[in-house]
Amino acid sequence: MSVQAKYSIIIPMYNEEAVIQETYRRLKKVMGTLQDSYELIFVNDGSRDQSADIIKDYSCWDDTVKLIDFSRNFGHQIAITAGMDYASGEAVIIIDADLQDPPELILSMIDKWKEGFEVVYAKRIKRNGETLFKKWSASMFYRVLRASTDINIPVDTGDFRLMDRKVVEQMKRLPEKNRFVRGLVSWVGFRQTAVEYERDERLAGETKYPLKRMIKLSLDGIMSFSYKPLKLAGYAGITLSILGFIYLLYVLYLALFTGATSKGWPSLIGIMLLFDGFVLIMLGVLGEYIGRIYDETKGRPLYIVNEVHGIQQEEQLPEKRTIQA
Questions:
Q1: pLDDT for 93
Q2: Residue 298 pLDDT > 70
Q3: Which 3 state secondary structure label does DSSP give 11?
Q4: 151, burial (CB in 10 Å: exposed 0-12, middle 13-18, buried 19+)
Q5: For residues 77 and 93, what is the distance between their CA atoms, to the nearest angstrom?
Q6: Which H or E element spans position 143?
Q7: Which of 114, 254, 264, 309 has the fewest C-beta atoms lying within 10 Å of its C-beta?
């Protein structure tokens, strides 16, 4: 695809009717301060409200607005991927529609990009309007992820970032189904730097990352970039085997020299539960990896596009990882 805009802004959205008009207004205000061309690519990830209709109306009279409308909800990370597939800019910026990440920070990212950095990510120094549990769990996730992988994934960062065209082209070559975009961006490398900011409270609506989705994203991050859970299983198995052998020697001592083995039923049950629980946990870990292998072998497209607006027919991609409904 030929480059048609200087900047592409990707905005994944899912039921953002309450905030999407303000998101559009602030993005237009920020990008309007620049003298270069830009495009706003809204990716509707199966919203059940009027989010897509609002953006569809904007695209009729604002030629900078483009809409990619999925046939159903495919997930936030897939929506970002679709935006990158359709983006034409020399620099591509990802920002969520909920305005927790301030659009005004885009200008600082562009300044860093002009200095020669190919990836500029936003690093949170404060998270406003979030519960203590959310702040604690997010902090733990990033640090566990860093400790679990060999890839340097910056802590306290989300998907809010700017990427050079060469980075986006490499990202488009990565076919994973269970995607963790910020990890993939770190994996491809290039010159990367951070800009710090305070994350705002949601302007309106509800979080699109409840506990269930946060756990899914955490598993995608850890299992896409690390085999350490499997290695830990091996280490734990060796440790428990040694402990079990020591306990066996203890039981033999009791049987041969004290005759007190009939009193060991509670400890026997405890050991059985310990080992059985460990085996089931490890089966779950193995199942996660095997399930992801199964997903990769299906060969299904990453997403299905129902319709697009503001995008010319010749701009649409004949990618194998997407099909047009």
A1: 93
A2: no
A3: strand
A4: middle
A5: 14
A6: helix 132-148
A7: 114
